[in-house]
Fold this sequence. Notes:
Blueprint: E1 2-3, E2 13-19, E3 34-40, E4 48-52, E5 57-61, H1 63-72, E6 77-83, H2 89-100, E7 105-108, H3 110-117, E8 125-130, H4 137-146, E9 152-157, H5 162-175, E10 179-183, H6 192-198, H7 201-204, E11 207-210, H8 213-222, E12 226-230, E13 236-237, E14 247-252, H9 260-264, E15 268-271, H10 283-297
Parallel strand pairs: 6-7, 9-10, 9-14, 10-11, 12-14, 12-15, 13-15
Antiparallel strand pairs: 1-7, 2-3, 3-4, 5-8, 6-8
Amino acid sequence: MTTGGAAGVAGGVHAEAHHAAGTAQPGRGSDPGVNFTLRATSGRAASRRCFVSSSESHIVCGFHATGALLGRCPGEIVAIWVDERRRDARMSALLQQAAAQGVATEHRPRAELDRLAAGTRHQGVVALCRGADSGAAADLNRYLATRAGDAFLLVLDGVQDPHNLGACLRSAEAAGAHGVVVPRDRACPLTPAVRRVAAGAAESLPVYRVTNLARVLEALKGAGVWVVGLSDAAGREIYDADLSGPLALVLGAEGRGLRRLTGAHCDELVRIPMAGAVPSLNVSVAAGVALFEAKRQRGG
């Protein structure tokens, strides 16, 4: 069964989507794009298959992420596929939200949703969204030029694990950060797995993927943003640092931490004091500690 609206697939045509065979799975450091079958349900349109790259579309899975997208920017959603077996109150509420926003929905077999989600836990909800999945350096520049009040950003230097990236996004959104900056290369992209872990934060918090992180850090400093990196080797504790003004918190990747070059572009390096035998925290936990210390100092 299909329902539709202004933001849905027009002209009596709906889409079936599958990740391209033989490509890397989402959440593994690459984004394979999606194969779509556009099938006419009325009129003279012919069925056809096409490959849509990740720069033209992306997939969102789960209730939290899809609901957040419906609330923030429903016009980005092409269609939502839901598990044909689910008829519970939570699903009914999501379908009503989609209908109110004029977004097309379709009940599909669970197996089709599994193929589309490519291993990501989807809860019976998969949304096809148009456009790129993140912003770029130009969008970050616009934010810096037009922001009201003190900037508050999280910068992640090469986080690889989708669960860590998703958890960082969730903590950043909860702490009131204005956006997250990540490298375009050698870092986890915004996969469906990331979006599921972020629980809606990826749809409400700008994510800026940049090609040259060092240059961006210098641009932030030039815009009056205090750039603070977290490093186990730093002499100063984070609780002694002033995080109350325009701020960018910079964290490194799993295992190796903050790269030397990245640290050299920070105004200041601080550490989270450890009281036990464990020498360091997981990057997503460290991000949460740093973000909420900044929130506390900023009067949040």
